[in-house]
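Project outcomes to date are best conveyed with an example. Our students and postdoctoral researchers have been running inverse folding experiments weekly, and each run begins with a structure described purely in tokens. The record below, which covers 230 residues, was selected by the lab manager from last quarter's runs and is presented without edits.
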């Protein structure tokens, strides 16, 4: 670990200095300084300086450690890029997880649209005469980035993508989803598709579909791979 980073972490914990009592396995050798203990003043005549102290070279004055600057330097080295800020909504409807980046509050119409698309996928390959049960009420969750305000930790694009991947993987596992639908191009850029283990498709966002109903034909073509897996 870089010395400035180590000092910054110790300062954040309120620790002035830390030295191990014993040599740590696999760690660099710790430089240890000999401690000179002067005899008691009662055993020395007045005005006499102990010999060990006379033989020691004078120590140059060391400037005070700039703790605040160290913390800022450590943070800036980890954050060479601006912190992205975004919110994703995750809707479990049918057997699929629907993910979309929000440009504003999620509306009831958007949730109903996703539920309707999920129901259409369930009906697509239903056997004749077999009644398909309506899809259960969608379950909605939200992911916000950044998830914390600790500037000493990585808040860049790569950290955001890793956190989104973990969030998506948990939702897929908890609900047993068979597919993932990425709604909108902005959402596609947030999710590392190579890390998903289910069939993944991307199409228009629900906001775009509601604003332009003529897009529904293209959206259905995009969803066909999920219909074949239904």
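After processing, the design step wrote out the following sequence:
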């Amino acid at each position: 670990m870089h010395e400035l980073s180590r000092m910054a972490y110790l300062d954040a914990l309120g620790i002035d200095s830390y030295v191990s009592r014993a040599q740590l396995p696999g760690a660099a050798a710790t430089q240890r300084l000999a401690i000179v203990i002067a005899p008691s003043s009662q055993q020395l005549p007045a005005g006499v300086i102990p010999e060990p102290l006379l033989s020691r070279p004078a120590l140059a004055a060391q400037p005070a450690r700039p703790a605040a600057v160290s913390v800022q330097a450590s943070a800036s080295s980890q954050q060479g890029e601006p912190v992205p800020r975004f919110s994703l909504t995750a809707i479990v409807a049918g057997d699929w997880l629907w993910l979309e980046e929000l440009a504003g509050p999620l509306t009831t119409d958007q949730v109903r649209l996703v539920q309707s698309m999920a129901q259409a996928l369930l009906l697509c390959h239903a056997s004749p005469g077999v009644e398909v049960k309506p899809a259960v009420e969608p379950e909605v969750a939200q992911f916000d980035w950044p998830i914390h305000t600790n500037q000493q930790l990585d808040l860049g694009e790569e950290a955001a993508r890793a956190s989104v991947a973990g969030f998506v993987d948990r939702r897929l596992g908890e609900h047993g989803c068979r597919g993932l639908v990425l709604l909108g191009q902005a959402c596609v850029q947030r999710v590392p598709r190579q890390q998903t283990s289910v069939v993944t498709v991307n199409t228009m966002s629900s906001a775009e579909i509601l604003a332009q109903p003529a897009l529904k034909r293209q959206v259905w073509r995009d969803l066909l791979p999920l219909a074949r897996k239904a």
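The longest strand covers residues 86-93. The beta strands are 86-93, 96-101, 139-145, 179-183, 199-203. The training component of this project remains on track.
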